[in-house]
Each structure stands twice: as C-alpha cells, then as structure tokens.
Design a protein that fits this description.
By secondary structure, this protein is an alpha/beta fold. It has helices spanning 36-45, 50-53, 57-70, 78-92, 106-117, 130-143, 156-165, 182-192, 207-211, 213-219, 223-229, 251-254, 291-294; strands at residues 7-8, 96-100, 122-127, 149-153, 173-176, 201-204, 236-237, 258-259, 269-279, 301-312.
C-alpha cells in the first residue's frame, strides 16, 4: 500500500534511556492476559512504598514501570510516548478526553492526571476486557483519580455509542491504543455521531510498531480521496497481514474478529496529521510495517500520529 505524505516531527526524545527499558516482549509467545495483570496489582499493593504510592498518580506509575522493568513486559504506552500526549493535553486543555484501550490503566493514570491539571472534567477509559478494566479501576482509586477517570467496559464501538446515548456530544481529545484494525472504523463512528468536529485532536499509538497502514492512509487523505473511497467500503474480515500479531490478540477470548465498515463517517472533515517519532518502553529494535516511513526511523523507534480536525469542506 502506498502511504500518503505526512509531516514527520523530530524525535520527541532523541535517544532512548536504556536504564528505564522494560523487559523484552516475549516474541512469538503470550505477552499479555496470562495472569501478569493481576500479578501487577499484587506487586503494587505489596510494594514497600505503598503508603507513598497511595494518592499519587506519579508514584503508582513508577510502581507499574518498576514491575515492567524487573518482572514482565507490559504493553503500556510508556514514558517516552506518554510524554508526547501529556504535552498535547497541556496544549489542548480538554474538558473531555476519551481513550480507546485502557489495558491496566497506565495511560488512564498518566493522562487522567494531566487532564485534571489542565482543568478538564472527565477522562473516559474504554476497555473491552472486564478483568483489565477492574485492574484500571483499582489503580485509579489507589492514585486518587476516581473523580476524573471513568472506566467504561465493553467493545470500543458499543461503548462509544453508549456514551453518546448517555449525553457525550463532543470529544476534545482522544487517544487510540486498542485493537489496531478498529482504529479507522471507530474514528468513522465518532465522525458519524458528530463527536469529532473542528478543534478535536487525537493521538494514535503504535503506528510504526506493529504499524497501521489503513489508519495512516485515512487520516492523511484529502477530502476528495476520502469521498472517493467511502463508496467502496463493505463488511469484511480483517487482513491480519496489515497488523502483525496484534490482529489476533483477542481471538482466544472473543473468537474471530470482524469489523463493520457500513458506517461511512464524515469524509468532509478536513484533517491535518503528523507523525511524532518516539520509542517503545522496551527500547527494542523494531521493523516497521509502514515501509514508506521506515527509512526515516531508527530501528528502536515507534511513533504517535497526531491528527487535528481543522475544518469542514463544502
């Protein structure tokens, strides 16, 4: 697939600090949902510094990072890429922020705290796995963020619809870090529900590792290109070759995944999108799925795609 052009920012942090690297992702093996998430909870609550951890988002995050660096890999956004979004929160000052994919709550803690400091009202963390959602809730409570972070359990699409029905009418800032094939369809759903409008900003993780060519193509396309392609979508199975191991990561629990492209979204929304290069928390060498940008990236880099809705075409 030929990728459209995009602005590529300088690396948020030009060099990875090996001292803070997570243990390596177990390549070819189970790398989550094998009990490590509950093990993390025990690790945090039994930590010698638990009294200092209580009520402190920063110290809860430090405890999670300690587990990831000394025990087992955790598929968190990590400190380096997380800082990109924290800076974005400080700039946008969102009243409402939504994340798709909460896992164990690292991003909810980091970004929820930043939203509160920026004067925001609510951070919605959408997580499909009820066990992971329970871990998020426990750590959010421990950190003292229950007043700002609300965890929503269920598939991303159904949760978005439910929030809209319950009164969510606009998203100021969004973070995408869930099932990679659903990035485009969930974005189109938000367009369809008018949750995205000029001024909305969102950041998408893992656009280099494992890569997400269909998503990058969509957010980097012109209005004319989106209008032309909107008539050709149909219900389809996911082509897992576009997404690496991430495409089947929920298969054991949820069965064969399907995504619906029946919702066309709003191709008239005008987007400006750029890639900000950064690092996975492991700092491990990676191979890009997106060949057109790979030659501009060092082997240890991942990227966050930041997209802004800047207008509506006639």
């Amino acid at each position: 697939m030929n990728m459209p052009a995009s602005t590529i920012d300088s690396v948020a942090n030009a060099r990875f600090d090996e001292k803070k690297a997570y243990v390596q992702d177990e390549q070819g093996q189970t790398f989550f949902d094998d009990g490590r998430e509950i093990e993390l909870l025990h690790f945090v609550y039994r930590h010698p510094s638990i009294n200092e951890i209580r009520g402190s988002p920063t110290n809860v995050l430090k405890a999670i990072d300690e587990y990831g660096r000394t025990k087992k890999y955790l598929m968190n956004v990590g400190d380096d890429k997380g800082r990109i979004v924290v800076d974005l929160i400080a700039e946008v000052k969102p009243q409402i922020m939504v994340e798709l994919g909460g896992y164990i709550g690292y991003s909810a803690l980091l970004f929820g705290d930043a939203v509160r400091k920026a004067g925001g009202k609510r951070y919605f963390s959408l997580e499909r796995n009820p066990e992971f959602a329970a871990v998020i809730m426990s750590l959010v409570d421990l950190a003292g963020l229950s007043d700002i972070v609300k965890v929503v359990v269920g598939s991303s699409a159904e949760s978005i619809k439910r929030l809209h029905t319950e009164g969510l009418h606009h998203i100021d800032l969004m973070f995408l870090d869930h099932w990679k094939p659903a990035y485009v369809t969930d974005l189109k759903l938000c367009e369809h529900l008018h949750l995205i409008s000029p001024g909305t900003v969102w950041a998408a993780d893992n656009v280099i590792k494992p890569g997400n060519p269909p998503y990058l193509e969509y957010v980097r396309s012109s209005v004319d290109q989106k209008r032309q392609s909107s008539n050709s979508d149909q219900m389809t199975k996911v082509d897992s070759s576009n997404f690496g191991k991430n495409a089947d990561m929920y298969k054991d629990r949820e069965g064969e995944e399907k995504i619906s492209t029946e919702i066309k979204g709003n191709p008239n929304l005008v987007y400006e999108s750029k890639l900000v290069k950064s690092f996975e928390p492991t700092g491990e060498p990676v191979r890009s799925q997106t060949r057109s940008v790979h030659h501009m990236l060092t082997e240890k880099q991942d990227g966050v795609e930041i997209t802004r809705c800047v207008g509506v075409a006639d």
